[in-house]
Records
---
Amino acid sequence: AGMARTLVELFYDVVSPYSWLGFEVLCRYQHIWNIDLCFRPAFLGGIMQATGNKPPAMLPKRAEYLLKDIKRMAKYYQVPVQISENVFQRILGTSTLGAMRFLTAIEMTQPQYLEPLSREFWIRFWSQHEDISQPENILAVARQAGLSSELTQKLVEMISTPAVKNRLKETTEEAIKYGAFGTPAVVAHFKGEPHLFFGSDRLELLGSFIGEKWLGPVPS
């Protein structure tokens, strides 16, 4: 008999470049490792607020390092994160609440679109430097991800409903309950217990923990 699959939940926000790196690596491993990957759109602002965390960019030395780190990571992970000049102003000045609610609405209705839709938001924000808080950009993302205009319209209408707002809030609170203080927060349900792994650079450790082989960030 085949081994039981390990449920791996990925709590993420598209404002976070490290979430994108972690997302792509887990997407690559979802058919290599014996896991069920579950995407959990959460709101990073809410996690930060609840845990008293601050964006790493608030510390100038760390901000300086972060720019180099993201460039190196993007190359090593083969994910097209492009750092713009005013990257920190963009992160602090963009609310991803609308985008994360849009992803929450798709999670509630057509979860099979969650992977391509999330990826498009990251590409738009991190490769093309577009303002994803703007409604027209949300529409463009949906189009790129292959959503019909009828479905997109339905999702746009859902964004402002209590059901979607509450669902995103609940997912965010769930991440906090598991111990998250930022994103990506990866929770592996192993031997009846949830185990938190924080950041895109702990997936090697996650593999080892659940008894899976790590083949680098880009397994061929």
---
Amino acid sequence: PTESGFTTDVLALYDWVKARSGNSSIIFWGHSLGTGIATNAARKLQEERGVQVDAIVLESPYNSIREAAAHVPITTIYRQFPGFEYLILDSIALANMFFRNDENVKVLACPLLILHAEDDAVLPVQLGRKLFETARGAYKDKSKVKFITFPKELGLGHDYISSNPELPALVK
């Protein structure tokens, strides 16, 4: 899999859904790594086709895959060794994997909702907050950018925001 391959796949899926959805809204919803795919596809639609997706929901996002890789728990032990950045972080870039949510949200104009659990042990909530600040700073209409955090007492972590019974109302 490649970043451009993922994006191409999502655009093909978008075309398929759009052809069958009538006037229904189409929302891109990305979780974790998928947030980079969602913003890539939305940006490509906007810049290359002049089409704006109806909305984007980013669940447990990050700014770039490099920053995410520097924070995931599996890399904790390796971060202290010399060469971590070169061997791990730079190798992601050499594979043309960037997933620049931070750059993508700067050019988007569709409604953007960022969801993050305070007890996310994979991608810390600070990454979602940082992405929110970037988007809010870039959006002309600040009311289109929302950030919702879920208290750690709910125990939603990285994978269970979608199980929160209040989620449909929050998204709506």
